[in-house]
Specification:
This protein is an alpha+beta fold and 349 residues long. It is 26% helix and 28% strand. The chain has eight helices and 22 strands. Strands 3-4-18-8-21-6-5 form a seven-stranded mixed beta sheet. Strand 3 (30-33), helix 1 and strand 4 form a beta-alpha-beta unit.
């Protein structure tokens, strides 16, 4: 059964009283229906006025949907972003294909439509990551294509004690092999053609790195996996541990990649921070915890979803038809502000 909240009224340019009402239904994110706004000037004024309500709802729910905004273009989305996000965050250590659409707006992903994207927190492997994500729907797919979200507080609570304790004490390790053939090349990942600049970035950001005679690069880094939200003080599960583990790949694809490049040549792989491999039981438990905490809503044109990137993980469902979901990132947070249970460090598998 839905619930509603909304502590105050607002009189917009048309003098129509407006109170935010959140519809909270099992299996779906918190949604508010917006009405009476006819242009971006009104939208920005309304967003600025109700921003305290949005912030309170975001803290409670972790992700919130705004439905009914008159948003039709990338430029409209950028104006909404500027009203909801105070400071933009650059896209660091790029991992998957994503188009830059202008004014720090990106496609959510350019991965094939048939491929699902597992739950993750954006840039969980970097030392500075976006505190907020904003997704917007310009074209809704004919089937599927939702951007599911999962409350990372609930994920942490649902995980087996032994997995939580292992991550709490050892963290997680991400290893990458860069290649223009099967993954992102290092030039794209680090946005430079300068080998020395890559080395400096890796050193400054606690990333172990090795160059090979054929010009390829491998990196490895240890990150905490469990952190504390700097404002709310809540502890959360925050990582890409499941997302990039080799056993999370389609079985046929994994076998083909290992046959061709070897396990050490996989584009991504994850382990516990001490180098111990995740068992199939561990992976199933992590997936089950995400599944139990996941909610989703079918996109409609004009929809906007604001996500607290620390409290909430996100993914993507496979889809059919045209789909244009855009994203912007901002309100950067330093890992050091989040009481990490393990200090970040460079490493090699």
């Amino acid at each position: 059964m839905g619930t509603t909240t909304g502590p105050r009224n607002w009189k917009g340019p048309d003098s129509m009283s407006h109170t935010l009402k959140w519809n909270v239904v099992e299996g779906k994110p918190a949604i508010t229906q917006v009405a009476g706004l006819t242009g971006m000037t009104q939208v920005r004024a309304w967003l600025e006025d109700v921003r305290p309500q949005l912030t309170a709802a975001l803290r409670e729910y972790g992700a919130i949907y705004l439905r009914g905004l008159p948003m039709a273009t990338i430029e409209d989305f950028a104006q909404i972003r500027d009203a909801l996000i105070s400071e933009r965050t650059p896209y660091r250590e790029k991992t998957t294909p994503r188009s830059r659409l202008g004014d720090d707006v990106f496609s959510s992903t350019d991965l094939p439509a048939a491929q699902s994207i597992r739950m993750h927190n954006e840039n969980s492997y970097t030392l500075t990551f976006p505190g907020r994500l904003l997704f917007g729907c310009l074209i809704a797919p004919s089937q599927g294509g939702a951007t599911p979200v999962a409350d990372c507080r609930k994920v942490l609570d649902a995980l087996p004690d032994q997995v939580v304790e292992k991550i709490r004490t050892a963290g997680w390790r991400l290893s990458r092999s860069y290649s223009e053939h099967i993954s992102t090349d290092w030039q794209t990942a680090f946005a430079t053609d300068d080998v020395d600049e890559v080395a400096r970035y890796c050193t400054d950001n606690l990333i172990g790195h090795q160059w090979y005679d054929d010009g390829t690069l491998k990196t490895s880094q240890i990150r905490p996996g469990i952190i504390t939200h700097p404002s709310s003080g809540e502890e959360v599960w925050f990582n890409h541990l499941l997302f990039w583990n080799e056993w999370a790949l389609d079985e046929d694809l994994r076998e083909a990649l290992v046959d061709e490049f070897g396990r050490d040549g996989l584009p991504f792989n994850t382990e516990f921070g001490d180098g111990a491999a995740l068992s199939n039981e561990d992976l199933r438990a992590i997936q089950a915890a995400y599944d139990a905490a996941t909610v989703r809503e079918t996109w409609q044109p004009g929809d906007v979803m604001l996500v607290d990137n620390i409290l909430t993980a996100h993914g993507r469902d496979p889809f059919r038809g045209d789909r244009k979901i855009v994203v912007a990132m901002g309100d950067p947070v330093e890992l050091s502000e989040c009481r990490p249970t393990v200090e970040p460090a460079p490493a090699f598998a």
